[in-house]
Protein: 6-phosphogluconate dehydrogenase (Decarboxylating)
Organism: Microbacterium aerolatum
Amino acid sequence: MQLAMIGLGRMGANIVRRLMRDGHECVVYDVNQDAVAALVAEGATGADSMADLAAKLEPTRVVWMMVPASLTGAVAEEAAAVLESGDILIDGGNSNYRDDVRRAKALREKGIEYVDIGTSGGVFGLERGYCLMVGGSDSAFAHIEPILRTVAPGVGEVERTPGRSGDLTPEEQGFLHCGPSGAGHFVKMVHNGIEYGIMAALAEGLNLLHNADAGVREAEHSAEIAPLEEPEFYQFPIDTAAVSELWRRGSVISSWLLDLTAAALHENPRLDGLAGRVSDSGEGRWTVKAAVDVGVPVPVLAASLFERFASRDEDQFANQVLSAMRLQFGGHKELPAGDVLEAGGRKSDSA
Amino acid sequence: MQLAMIGLGRMGANIVRRLMRDGHECVVYDVNQDAVAALVAEGATGADSMADLAAKLEPTRVVWMMVPASLTGAVAEEAAAVLESGDILIDGGNSNYRDDVRRAKALREKGIEYVDIGTSGGVFGLERGYCLMVGGSDSAFAHIEPILRTVAPGVGEVERTPGRSGDLTPEEQGFLHCGPSGAGHFVKMVHNGIEYGIMAALAEGLNLLHNADAGVREAEHSAEIAPLEEPEFYQFPIDTAAVSELWRRGSVISSWLLDLTAAALHENPRLDGLAGRVSDSGEGRWTVKAAVDVGVPVPVLAASLFERFASRDEDQFANQVLSAMRLQFGGHKELPAGDVLEAGGRKSDSA
Amino acid sequence: MQLAMIGLGRMGANIVRRLMRDGHECVVYDVNQDAVAALVAEGATGADSMADLAAKLEPTRVVWMMVPASLTGAVAEEAAAVLESGDILIDGGNSNYRDDVRRAKALREKGIEYVDIGTSGGVFGLERGYCLMVGGSDSAFAHIEPILRTVAPGVGEVERTPGRSGDLTPEEQGFLHCGPSGAGHFVKMVHNGIEYGIMAALAEGLNLLHNADAGVREAEHSAEIAPLEEPEFYQFPIDTAAVSELWRRGSVISSWLLDLTAAALHENPRLDGLAGRVSDSGEGRWTVKAAVDVGVPVPVLAASLFERFASRDEDQFANQVLSAMRLQFGGHKELPAGDVLEAGGRKSDSA
Amino acid sequence: MQLAMIGLGRMGANIVRRLMRDGHECVVYDVNQDAVAALVAEGATGADSMADLAAKLEPTRVVWMMVPASLTGAVAEEAAAVLESGDILIDGGNSNYRDDVRRAKALREKGIEYVDIGTSGGVFGLERGYCLMVGGSDSAFAHIEPILRTVAPGVGEVERTPGRSGDLTPEEQGFLHCGPSGAGHFVKMVHNGIEYGIMAALAEGLNLLHNADAGVREAEHSAEIAPLEEPEFYQFPIDTAAVSELWRRGSVISSWLLDLTAAALHENPRLDGLAGRVSDSGEGRWTVKAAVDVGVPVPVLAASLFERFASRDEDQFANQVLSAMRLQFGGHKELPAGDVLEAGGRKSDSA
C-alpha cells in the first residue's frame, strides 16, 4: 500500500527501505533534501513540501512521522494542515504518551485518525524488523495492518511460546494493537523503563565481578573506606569479557542486551576511553513518574534511572551535604581521592 | 572419559544423560536407589556406596557432586574419604563460593583437586546444555575439559559476537575457567544476582502495564491513598500476555526470561492462584553481601532482593511502625483494606 | 492585625486560636457552622458567607484558606470573587506547588496577591507553633509578616546555630520567605519527602532489631526462604520500645520522629491491631516526580515511597509475575504462607 | 567506683573526664604517654603497662577499652592476660557485634565477663553524655551500672514520653541493657544504619532544593540529558542554609542531624571545598548484611550506603558498561561533561 514518511533519519529511512523491499509505495519528506534524494535513488517518491506530500497520496492518506520527540508537535500540526478527514497520521517517534492523548483528541475534531507507534529495534531494525507497539482506533489499526506486518520482524527464528497454536497472532509477528491513542507509546515507555533496569542489573553484576579481586588490591586502597574484612574471599581476577560471552549460551540471563555487552567488552575489555557518564532519554523518567502516579512500586526501575543521574554527578550537592554533616559531628575531614586518613580517621561515623 | 555422579536429582540425572549420549562412561550414586536404577537402565554403572563408586573408577578419578547445597559439606567429606591424591572432586551445586575456598584448601592438603562449577540451565539443560562457570586449578580444568565440552551447550544457534574470529574459545561453547577455587560459584552467584534484577525489572514493568487502567478503576479506590491526579492519562486496559509475547520479537529487551514470562502469562493471563510470595535462594543474598564487602553499589540487585522479602511480608513490623508514627503525629487511624477514611483523612501526612 | 480564616478543621482552628492569643483579629468561615460557632465563642468574628467574610475585613484584606487540597481550587475561586485588587489570598493547605504557580498567575491578573504557605506542626502546633514555608511576592510577605511571626514557633528552646549572631532572622523564628509563588509549597513538599525517608529509616532499622532473634525462631521458619546461615549471630530478643526511648538521649539520631516512635512503642510495644497498610499523601509522590524532572537522584526518598505502596500490596501483580517465572524455569511451586516445601525445594533459583 | 580506661583518644579521654567529675576513680592507659600524662594532670591514675593497670585496680576489676575496632582483638587479649576470673572487660569501641559474640565466649571460659557497649555522642559527649547500648550478662550490667549512669546523658532536657510515669527506667537516662553479649553493638550498628538513612534523606532533599532553579539554568544544560519538560515549574532559587535553619523549629523533621546540617550550611552555604566523596565505616555495611541474613528488607538503609559508594566512584565500571551498551545499540557516542550532542543525539535510548 501507499505511505508517506516524514523524517528520514536512520530509523525513518530504514523503515522506508523495509517497506519498499516488500512492495509498498513510499512518498518521503525531510528538511534535509539529501536524505530525500538518497531514498528517491532507491525508488521512493520525493516530496518537497508537506502540501506536495499530501498531494502525492491517495485518500485514505497514511502519513508516518519519524522525527525527534521535540519536533513532533510542530510537524504534526503542519501535517494535519494538509490532511483531510479520514486520513491517518502516525507518530512513530519517542513521544510522551500524554502528548498522544492530547494530540489524538485535537485531531479527532478534524476527523483525522492519530496512531502512536512505539518502535524498538535500533540499528538492527532494517534487517530484523522493528517491534511495533500501536495505540489508536480499531479501524485505523486495521487500515495500516499491511504496513505494520512489513515493518515488524515477523515470526523470525523465535520459537513459538509453548501452549500457543493455531493462526499466528499479530503479537507473534512483532506488532500489537495495545489500546486507544497513547497506549502504543505507553507500552514503549514501560519497555524502555524495563530496558534501563535490565541494563543496570547487568552493569552492577559486571562491576561486582570487576572488583572480585578487591582482596588482592587491598593494599592500594586508601583508608577512606572501611577496610575489606575478609580479603581471602576476594582474590578472583575475573575476565568480564569472557564471562559475558559465556552467559550467552545456556544461561537463564541470555538476552539481546547481554549480546551487546559481550560485543562491547570483547572490543574494549577495560572499556578504555569511556567516562561512564550515562545519558537518559525521556522514557525512563516517564516510567517512574507514571508508576508514582498510579501507586505502583518500581524500586528497580527507579534505581536504574537514579544511577544514571548519579553517573553524571547530579548527586554532587547531596554528597557534599553528607561530607559537611560528617565534618560537623565528628570533626572528620574529607579527603580527596588517593589521600590517606590520619590514624583513627576510619572511625568516622562512630558518633 | 569416565566420571562419577553423586546426586541424581533432575539436574544430576540429566547431566549424566547428556554425558552418556556423547559416549562418556558414568558411574552413578544416590541415596535414592530408584534414581540409580533408572540411570543404570539407560546405560550407567550403578554404585551402592561411596567406596563402591571409588572402586569403579580408574585414577585419575573424577567425581561430580550434584546435591543440595546444605548437604554438600557432608557429601564432600564422604567422597574425600574414598578418593586419593590426584583425584578430582567437583561441586556442581549451588554452594556459597566461600565454602569452596575453604573446602579446596582442606582437600588440597590431601592432594585432592577441588573444582567448583556453577551450573545454569534449569529444566531445559538436557537438550540445550548447561552454562558452566568453573573454578579450580589449571591442571584440573584441563583434565575435565572433555566432560565440560559435552555438558555445555556448545555454540548452538547463538550468533558469533562481532569481532570474534579464529578458533572458538571455551566461553563461546558455554564453559569457562573463571579462576581459582571459588571463582566458578562466585560468577554463578553474580549471574543469579543479575537474574533477580532482570526478573524484577520485567515484573515491575508488567505491574505498571497491569495498572495502566487505574484511571478507569479510580472510583473503586478507597481514600486510603492519594487520589489519582490525572485519571485521563491512565485509561489503558493492557493485555500483558500479548505485550510480553510482542516484546520477544525485534525488541531490545528480548531475553530468555521474557520468553518464560510470555509463556506464563499465556497459560494464566491473570496469574490466578499465585499468591505472589516469592522465595529466594542464597545467591541473591550472597551477591548483595559480597557487593557490600567490596564497596560496589548494587541498588538494583539489592532492590530486587528486598522486593522478594517484602512479598513474603518480611516488611510487616516496619510498616506497622510507620502506621504507628502516623497515628502519633496526626491522630490518623489506619484503615483495613477496603475501608474508607473519614473526610480529611487523606491529608494524613500533612503534619 | 486582621485576618480571615476559611476552613476551621483542626489546623485552621488552631492557627486562629494562636493568632487571637497574640491579639490579632480573626474573621472565620467554614461550611460547618458549628466550627464557626466554636471559634466565635472564643472571640472570633463569624462570617456566614464568602461575601460576608470579605465585608468584615478592611483592605488590604488578608484571607487564609486552610482546606483539603482537593477543595482549594474551588474555594480560591470563590474567595477571589469577593476580593479586590491589592488583597492577599493565602493557601496554607497541602497544595501541589504547581497549582500555586498556576493560581498565582491567574490571580495576578486581577491584582490579587497569592501566597502559598507550607505549614508543618501537626497536632502540636497550637502550643509549639507552626513551621511556615512561604512563597509569594516580597510585598505580600512583608505585609503578612506580623501574622507569620505569631503563627510560627519563634526561637523556642532550640539552641542557636553556632556561628549565627546578631538579630534573629525569620528562619530562626520558624518562618521563611522561600521564593516566588509556589516556593513555599515546593519546600514543604521536599520537607515531607524527607520525612518519608526518615520515617522509613527508623522503621527499617526497628524491623531489623525486631528480627534480631531470627536465630532463635529459626526452627519455626518454613523452608520457603533461604535458611539462616549463622543462627548463632541472631539470638537477640531486643526490646524495641526501650531502644527507641534510649536513642532519644545523647544519640545522633535523636529527632522528633523518634520521639513519636518511642511514644507509639511504649503505648503498644507489639503494635497490635495495626495492619501496616501505610497511606501516603501527595507530597512524597510530588517530591519523587520533581526529582525525576530535574534529574536529581533520590533513591532513598523513592524507596520510602515505594515501601508504602508495597505495604498496601500494590506490588501484588509484580510478585505474581515473579512466582510465575519461577514456576516456568524450575517447575517450582509457590507455597502459601506457613506451608513447607518438599525436600530440595529450597534450590529454587538455581536455574 | 573504680574503673580503668584503655585508649585515651577523644572519646576515651572524655569518658574518663565525665567519670572523674562524678567522683569515680580512673586508672588510665594508652600507648601514647602524653595522653596518659594529660589525664593524670586532671586527677587520673596513670598506668604504664597492662600489668600495672591491673595491679592498680581492686577486684572486681572493671576495664573499659576504647580503641579503634581494628585493634580491639589484640588489646582484649592483652587485657585478658592480666585479668582474673570475675573481672569485667568492656569494649566501648565500634566493634562488629560478631566479634563480641566470639570474644565473650572465649573469655567466659576464663571466667572473665565481657561487656560490649555501643557508644553514641561524638564531640558533644563530654557535656551531653553518651548514649550507651549495652550487651552482656545481667550481673555484669548490674555491677557497672553506676558507671553507665554517669557516662550516660541522664534525663536532660528531653521531655518524658507521654504515658511513662513512675521511676525513670535506665533507657530514660540514656543507657540500656539490650541483651546478651553482642546485643549492645548490634543495637549500635542498627543505630548507625538508621543514621545513614536519615543523613541521606536530608541530603537528597536538600539536593532537590538546590536544583529547584533548574528551569532557570536550563539554557546552560548540555544536551547530554533529557531536556527539562516544564521549566516554568523549576524557577525557585532556594536558600538551602535558610531552609535547613527554618526546619529546626516546629517542623516534624527537626532532629540533631538537621541541626548539624543547618550549622554546616550556615558556615559554608555553597559547601565550597568539599569534594563529596563520602566515607563509610563498618556499621552501615554490617547493618545491610545483617538484614540480608535475616531476610528483612532495608531498601532505604541500603540505598543510603550505596550512595556513599557511588560518591567515591565505586560505580565507575558499571557506568562504563552502560555507556558501552548504549554505544553498541544505538551508535551513540558518550560525551565528556560539558560537551554538546549532535542534533538528534538526545534520542539516545530509543532503540
The two ends of chain D are 73 Å apart (CA to CA). Chain D has two domains: 2-156+169-179, 189-238+275-330.
